[in-house]
Amino acid sequence: MVIADQILKEIDGRLHFLDSIGLDYVTMSRTARTLSGGEAQRVRLATQIGSGLTGVLYVCDEPTVGLHPHDDHRLIGTLTRLRDMGNTVIVVEHDDAMMRAADHIVDLGPGAGEHGGKIVATGNVAEVMANEASLTGAYLSGRKRIPVPEERRPGNGKSIAVTGARENNLQGIDVEFPLGLLGCVTGVSGSGKSTLVYDILYKRLAQAVAQGRDRPGDHDEITGIEHIDKVVNIDQSPIGRTPRSNPATYTGAFTPIRELFATLPEARIRGYKPGRFSFNVKGGRCEACQGEGYIQIEMQFLPDVTVPCEICQGRRYNREALEVTLRDQSIADVLAMTVETALDFFWNYSRIRSKLETLRDVGLGYIRLGQPATTLSGGEAQRVKLSTELSRRATGRTLYLLDEPTTGLSFEDCAALLRVLHRLVDHGNSVLLIEHNLDLIKNADWIIDLGPGAGNRGGNLLAFGTPETLAQVEESHTGRYLRNALGVEAQVGVAD
C-alpha cells in the first residue's frame, strides 16, 4: 500500500470524476468507437480534469457538446469544484445553463465574420443580460426568444417503421417515424439515439435508395421505404479537405459566375471560355501556385508553413484572366466578396442570386465566396450543405437526417437553422434530428424519446408524440426540461 498509494490516488481521482459526470455505467473495457458523442466528450474531459491539480488554467471548448440538459448540471458541478480547488476555468460555450452558472462572461460580436470580433459585453450574467447591445444577453434575459410554432404539422399520413431494433444497447424496440414533418429523437447521452437513427435507419435506407455498402445494425425489418426516394445525411464534416474547395464551388454558384464572365465583351474578343476563369485548370490560373493563392513551404521537423504566392499576391489568377472585369470587378474580386456583397452585385442574375440567397438565409451572409473550406467551422460547413440542399429542386420525398446540428451554434444561429429546417419540411420533405437543444426540440412536430438512462439502463422507447405530450411523461428526463421550455405545468408532481 505504501508503494501503491500515489498510483491508487490517481486512479481513484479519475474514477471519481467519471462517476460524478454520470459515466458510472460505462465498463472500463468499452472500445472508444462504441461511445456516443457525449460519452466520448466526457472521457476526454476526464483525461485533462480528472487529475485534480491546483493552480491550473483549464480552457474547455464547448464541453457540453453531445450532453443532454440532464447531464449538463453534473458537468457544471464538476467545473465549479475545479474552480473551488483554486483553478481558473475558461469555457467557450453557447449553452444556456453553462452561461448562467459562470462567474464572468465575455460576449464577442455583435455579428459573425467581419461583423464581429469586438467585445460587446463583459461581467456577470445579470450585467450581460442588461446590456442592450448583446445578442446573447437578449436571449438570456428573454427579450429575444425562439418561439414555439403555433401549430404542429400532422405529417403526410405516411411513415417508416423500424421493428426489433436491438443493435448495441437497444432493447428490441419498435419505432415509427412519421414523414412530412420535423421529427426529433431525444434522450440522455448514450441512450441509443445514434444507433437507432444512423446504424439502423440510415444505413438500411441508404442500401435501399442509394446502393449504400454499409451493413445496418441488428433489427428485424424496416417498412415504408417506398415512401421516400432519397435520404441525405447532413453532418458537420468539412465540405472539402483542400483549400480549393470553397462555398462558391460547393453550392454550385461558381459555375454560373464563370459562365457570366465568359460572356463579357472583353472575354469574347479574346475567345475565353468559362474554363479560363477556373482556378483548378490551366489557362487562367496562376501557374506559380497552381491556382491555390499561396505556396506551402515544407519545414523540416516543424509543421508546414503557407505563404501567399509572390506572383499573383494570393489572387489565384494570371494577369490575362484578371483583365476581364464586370462593373470593375475581376473574378478574383468576386471570390473575395462576402455573400451579402455578392448578392447585391449579382442581383439581376437569377441563377447566381438563388444560390446566394439560400446561403444568406441560413445565416452565412458574412462568409466570403472564395473562403477555403478548411477555414470554415463545423457549424458553418453544415449550413453550407443545408443551403445547397435548399437550392436543389425539391422532390418532396427526401428524408434529411441531422445529428446534433446545433453543435457550435449560438442562439441566433439556432434561430436561422430552424428557419431553414422548417423551409425544407414546407417543401414536402421530412427532417429527422437527433438533438439535445431544447429550442429545437420544442419546435419539432413529433418527438421520439429513448431512455430512461444511458448504456444498459437505456435503449427503451419511453414516449413519442408532440412536445406537449412528452412534457407530461414523468419518466422522461427530456420531458421534465421541456416543461420549463414550453411553460407547461406537469399534471403530476415533478420527479426528483
UniProtKB/TrEMBL annotation:
GO cellular component: cytoplasm; excinuclease repair complex
Keywords associated with the record: ATP-binding, Cytoplasm, DNA damage, DNA excision, DNA repair, DNA-binding, Excision nuclease, Metal-binding, Nucleotide-binding, Repeat, Zinc, Zinc-finger
Subcellular location: Cytoplasm
Location of the ABC transporter domain: 155-477
GO biological process: nucleotide-excision repair
Molecular function terms from GO: ATP binding; ATP hydrolysis activity; DNA binding; nuclease activity; zinc ion binding
InterPro entries: ABC_transporter-like_ATP-bd, ABC_transporter-like_CS, P-loop_NTPase, UvrA
Chief location: cytoplasm
PANTHER family per the UniProt record, alphabetical: UVRABC SYSTEM PROTEIN A (PTHR43152)
Name assigned to this protein: UvrABC system protein A
Organism: Geodia barretti
